[in-house]
């Protein structure tokens, strides 16, 4: 589900922007030469350090941010849980053991009418699987099992770490290009105004290029969804995984047109919005699973 991607990207943009502001105010990583030109090698090194730092900080914060922003209630096995909550934890842990995960993921529930779930965390052995109350209300047990297996497969596949490396590369280009564009913009104003224009332009271009760079992350996410579907099918059984996708498809067809435009970014991936979707088209996901 796209909550994992959305939270990671939002955290990444916030962290990257904060690092950029702090370093600019401290005068760290100067890449403008005495003659007013740009030292491209220094800028590239600076961009890589900032880019990968921002990406890895986002990864480390990912689980905490998910809990805070989504209001996730973590279900701890030693707490007084309801029978259904305890069953939910046990199912996630059973799937995690089957996937070879040594330390069991935290399991949580958050209040939302959306049919949604996500997995996040900095590593396989420090992860979180969270499901919405809407998913638990809308889906039957077999479909819930398929969704949980899909999320556990994301953890087992190390998708968050792989995405962090990709995001680090994207961030490097974002920081690099934003500062070149800002330097060019500062050449069109008076010399006394150039530092202010450069500072503001860096922030504007960095946010803009981060949004454009997210298209690369979205494309990677769509690619990894097929692998998570396959992993979910291996863990829970192909029938349950296909059943879960069919129930998701039925849900998206029932909700209103306004909700559909939002849902397409979260669970289905409409063909018309393919570039902006974190998930492939549900029909294509079902077709690929049934063909295996």
From TrEMBL:
Gene Ontology annotations for the cellular component aspect, listed alphabetically: plasma membrane
Ranges where the Peptidase M48 domain occurs: 85-291
Protein name: Protease HtpX homolog
Protein's GO biological process: proteolysis
Family recorded in the similarity comment: Belongs to the peptidase M48B family.
Listed Pfam families: Peptidase_M48
Entry's transmembrane regions: 7-28, 40-60, 165-184, 196-220
Any GO molecular function: metalloendopeptidase activity
Protein EC: 3.4.24.-
Keyword terms, alphabetized: Cell membrane, Hydrolase, Membrane, Metal-binding, Metalloprotease, Protease, Transmembrane, Transmembrane helix, Zinc
Active site: 151
């Amino acid at each position: 589900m796209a909550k994992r991607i959305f939270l990671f990207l939002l955290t990444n943009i916030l962290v990257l922007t904060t690092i950029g502001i702090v370093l600019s105010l401290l005068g760290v990583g100067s890449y403008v030469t005495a003659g007013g030109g740009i030292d491209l090698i220094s800028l590239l090194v600076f961009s890589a350090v900032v880019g990968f730092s921002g990406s890895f900080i986002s990864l480390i914060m990912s689980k905490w941010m998910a809990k805070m922003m989504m209001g996730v209630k973590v279900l701890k096995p030693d707490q007084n849980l309801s029978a259904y909550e305890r069953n939910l934890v046990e199912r996630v842990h059973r799937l995690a053991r089957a996937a070879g995960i040594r330390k069991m993921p935290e399991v949580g529930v958050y209040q939302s009418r959306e049919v949604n779930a996500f997995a996040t965390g900095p590593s396989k052995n420090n992860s979180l699987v969270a499901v919405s109350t809407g998913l638990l209300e809308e889906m039957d047990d077999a479909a819930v099992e398929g969704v949980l297996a899909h999320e556990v497969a994301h953890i087992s596949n190390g998708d968050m770490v792989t995405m962090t490396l990709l995001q680090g590369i994207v961030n490097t280009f974002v920081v690099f290009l934003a500062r070149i564009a800002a330097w060019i913009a500062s050449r069109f104003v008076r010399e006394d105004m150039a530092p202010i224009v450069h500072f503001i332009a860096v922030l504007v271009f960095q946010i803009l290029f981060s949004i454009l760079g997210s298209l690369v992350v979205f494309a990677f996410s769509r690619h990894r969804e097929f692998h998570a579907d396959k992993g979910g099918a291996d863990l829970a059984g192909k029938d349950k995984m296909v059943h879960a996708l069919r129930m998701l498809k039925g849900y998206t067809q029932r909700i209103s047109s306004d909700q559909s435009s939002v849902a397409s970014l979260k669970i289905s991936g409409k063909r018309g919005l393919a570039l902006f979707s974190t998930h492939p088209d549900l029909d294509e996901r079902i077709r690929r699973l049934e063909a295996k």
